[in-house]
Amino acid sequence: MSADERVFVIVGASLAGARAAEALRAEGFTGRVLLIGQEEEVPYERPPLSKGFLQGKDPREKAYVHPREWYAEHDIELMLGRRALAVDPAARTVTLDGDEQVSYDKLLLATGSKVRTLDVPGADADGIHYLRAYPDSEALRRALTADPRPQVLVVGSGWIGLEIAAAARGYGCPVTVVTPDRAPLRHVLGDELAALFRALHEANGVEFRFGTGVSSFGSLDGAVRSAVLDDGTELAADLVAVGVGIRPATELAEQAGLAVDNGVVTDAGLLTSDPHIYACGDVASSLNPLLDRHLRTEHWANARAGGKAAGKAMAGQDVTYAQVPYFFTDQYDLGMEYCGWAGPGDYDRVVFRGDPSLRDGKSPEVIAFWLTDDDRVVAAMNINIWDVQDDLSALVKAGFAGTPADPARLTDPSVPLPATLR
After folding, report:
1. φ and ψ at 53, to 5 degrees?
2. In this structure, are residues 350 and 337 in contact, taking their beta carbons and an 8 Å threshold?
3. H or E segment at 314?
4. I want to staple 243 with a disulfide (CB 3.0 to 4.6 A). Which of 160, 178, 254, 357 is the partner?
5. Cα gap 13→19, rounded to integer Å
6. TM spans, by residue (predicted)?
7. Average pLDDT over residues 180-191
């Protein structure tokens, strides 16, 4: 039998890209696999950047998807520190910096996302940090551990902003969080759980400024020293951490003429509008048959599972990517996992198994359920209660399939979770 001369190119040496390459080899693909990434680092997982690594608990290598030698052992060609500049779908080529061209039989876009930046006067001052890559986390950790400890201003009250705030408080820094919303994480979790996270951070010494943003920064000798808010308030700040969201890195897809709508549009098999190009991870807006909608998910689990699914699809498997969205966070003594999808208008109310209130400043042990008006579970969150994710995911799958739960049994800790469906 002749050797497989096909070339599969993966743009994005990320968690998703590395998992796709791994899946290709696991599925028996013996052609060339090129894994191209802008960073010099071998592919790694990003959650530690705002969690264990930032907090000084985990070594850098713990986040690596595979050791460097694994790629050579599996005949995967790592091309690190290289930028993909253009894709020519007709010629099936990718142009890299230095005018190098690589040809492909199949291409995977795992280009991830880019941080949204602030466009206000003074935003280029030293001491203003964004968090997306290892050098960002290293620089932020050095700044947070400087003596004396800096006065920290966090702009944004999403997951990244709150995890940075928690890390900063762990180092003993005074922290203020500024957000245009009326509560942290409200746009993700709703008012009920937002109240819990607000109470948690306030119990740990964080001050919030709600309903406002930053209009400008003041500096001294090029380094940030203050921030002026939209309401005219001036706050001292020696260190600013900005967490105002990310956007999908769709530039290559747009240049190549692929369908793009809040991400690179794919079908349930992660195939784009071009029959030879796939997309996965943060950059992909994929049809999720479970939820019956296109969804772009900016979390670790999607990169991990989506990369594997894309690799299988490229290898010729019949893939239907129908993951229950999942994410997690660790803040102070609170550890939580969330599964499902409950955006504004997708649910009617939240019910709890346990008391969601803090006791003596300590976070609770509780499970929250997001219910529709006909009692279907569309999302669930376990806080400081472990080994229940399989059951919660099953409830969410049942909910999206049309099976309601019994709210009285959901909120009764004596009833096993699988027995809460009607």
Report:
1. -70, -45
2. no
3. helix 300-314
4. 160
5. 10
6. none
7. 94
Residue 2 predicted with pLDDT over 50: no
Q: Where are the alpha helices (DSSP H) in 145-237?
A: 159-170, 186-203
CA distance 80 to 35: 8
Q: What are phi and psi of 376, to 5 degrees?
A: -85, 135
Say which residues have a Cβ less than 8 Å from residue 308's Cβ, sequence separation at least 6.
19, 20, 22, 23
Tokens encoding 389: 């994710």
Residue-wise pLDDT for 89-112, tens only, equals 999 999 999 999 999 999 999 999
Q: Measure the CA–CA gap between 72 and 135, rounded to whole angstroms.
A: 25
Q: Which among 258, 196, 295 has a CA at the least distance from the CA of 306?
A: 295
Residues 231, 162, 286: CA angle, nearest 5 degrees: 105
Q: What are the residues facing 103 on neighbouring strands?
A: 93
Cα distances from 258 to residues 93, 109, 206, 279, 308, in angstroms, run: 15, 11, 44, 11, 22
Please give the pLDDT value at position 343: 85
Give burial (CB, 10 Å; 0-12/13-18/19+) of 422.
exposed
Report pLDDT digits (tens) over 394-409. Answer: 999 999 999 999 999 9
Confidence at residue 1, expressed as pLDDT on a 0 to 100 scale = 34
User: Does the pLDDT value for residue 31 go beyond 70?
Assistant: yes
Q: What SS3 class is residue 60? A: helix
- In the block, tokens 């004596």 appear at 414
For the chain, give the percent of residues with pLDDT over 90: 98
Other Cβ atoms less than 10 A from the Cβ of 383: the count is 22
Taking 3-state DSSP, the helix, strand and coil percentages for the chain, each rounded to the nearest 5, stand at: 25, 30, 45
Which has the closest alpha carbon to 76: 37, 38, 30, 35?
Answer: 35
CB 239 within 8 A of CB 127: yes
Q: How far apart are CA 276 and CA 263, in angstroms?
A: 18
- What are the angstrom distances between the C-alpha of 366 and each of 153, 341, 358, 378, 381? 30, 19, 11, 17, 8
pLDDT of residue 265: 98
What is the distance, to the nearest Å, from the Cα of residue 259 to the centroid of all Cα atoms in its chain? 22
Closest CA to 239 of 130, 134, 321, 326: 130
Contact between residue 153 and residue 241 where contact means Cβ atoms under 8 Å apart: yes
